[in-house]
Amino acid sequence: MAKYKKKYIDIEAIIWDGKVKTICDFLFGHPNISWWPGQNGMIFIKNCNGLRECNLGDYIVKTPTGCIYPLSPDSFHMSYELSGE
């Protein structure tokens, strides 16, 4: 069985802190992405792949292709590191 690793790409990301301004600023200019609040600081993000749940402290990732999705802190840190740019 062959093993693969993720190719290097630069992404933008924020940590969901429960503030509406944070998500509005991050998603500004992305008309195909919608979101709405849930309970206890959780939000739902709808993108081309469906509905995703984002909890307080999760990362919200924006790829160069415009895909936006939430990741738990553990998943985020397994996949990404600070680029230094």
What would you say this structure looks like, in words?
The N and C termini lie far apart (36 Å). This protein has one domain. A hairpin with a 2-residue loop joins strand 3 (43-47) and strand 4. The protein is α+β, with helices and mostly antiparallel strands and 85 residues long. The protein has a three-stranded antiparallel β-sheet with strand order 1-5-6. The protein has two helices and six strands. The chain has helices at residues 20-27, 73-79, and strands at residues 12-15, 34-37, 43-47, 50-54, 59-62, 68-71. The mean pLDDT is 88.
Concise overview:
The chain has 85 residues and is an alpha+beta fold.
Topology summary:
Elements: E1 12-15, H1 20-27, E2 34-37, E3 43-47, E4 50-54, E5 59-62, E6 68-71, H2 73-79
Antiparallel strand pairs: 1-5, 2-3, 3-4, 5-6
Rg of Cα set: 14 Å
Instruction: Indicate the mean pLDDT.
Output: 88
- Main beta-sheet annotation: 3 strands, antiparallel
Backbone structural class: alpha+beta
Instruction: State the helicity in percent bands.
Output: 10-25%
Basic shape: globular
Order of helices and strands: EHEEEEEH
Overview features:
2 helices, alpha+beta, globular, three-stranded antiparallel beta sheet, 85 residues
